[in-house]
Design a protein that fits this description.
Elements lengths: L1 H18 L1 H16 L1 H5 L4 E4 L1 H7 L1 H38 L5 H55 L3 E4 L11 H7 L3
Parallel strand pairs: 1-2
Helix pairs in contact: 1-2, 4-5, 5-6, 6-7
């Protein structure tokens, strides 16, 4: 019985470590307390769960942040698409003209295509890095807001432990809807 609890808690803790190291440490301490001190369980420890994934996908601040980021990067994305189309058109034109081109012209155009492709790849990489950095900035603010809401819920409703991102959760301990509501819907 004890080993099944430890196994279940270990799998939950492993997933938590990937998502939130600080919360994972609190969960480990709470889990050790729950397993090693049976009297705590006898007193009715109140445990809750919150899905960070749902909060970052469904909350009003998350949707607003996603729209803001998409608007912010729309121009650069369009520029990349235009550059990719230009490269594709130039490559098709080169393939069509290559048999009748002089060797020097063919080499020059191949070099132009290679340079344009390198430029496109570099710009895509920079775009993705900037997009991810910006997304992480926005979403870290949302996580901070969610953490404050979770803390308030825990204090007001007397929770001893609230876990984020578990492998399996009973709907009766899922507090995600309350956190979404606290974040504005």
């Amino acid at each position: 019985m004890k080993s099944k609890s430890v196994s279940t808690l270990t799998s939950v803790v492993n997933r938590l470590v990937r998502a939130h190291r600080a919360i994972a440490m609190a969960a480990v301490l709470g889990a050790v307390t729950l397993v090693s001190v049976p009297s705590v369980q006898a007193q009715g420890t109140k445990i809750g769960f919150v899905s960070t994934e749902r909060i970052l996908r469904d909350s009003k601040p998350a949707k607003a942040a996603q729209a803001k980021i998409e608007a912010e990067f729309k121009g650069r994305d369009q520029e990349l698409q235009n550059l990719a189309n230009r490269l594709r058109n130039m490559a098709q034109e080169f393939d069509k003209d290559a048999p009748v081109m002089s060797e020097s012209d063919r080499i020059r155009r191949q070099r132009e295509l290679a340079d344009l492709d390198s430029d496109l790849q570099r710009k895509r990489r920079e775009f993705q890095e900037d997009f991810n950095r910006r997304r992480n900035e926005e979403f870290s603010n949302i996580v901070e807001q969610a953490d404050k809401a979770i803390q308030q819920i825990a204090e007001s409703q007397g929770y001893d432990l609230i876990i984020q991102d578990a492998v399996t959760v009973s709907p009766r301990v899922d507090l995600t809807d309350q956190v979404l509501q606290a974040l504005g819907g």
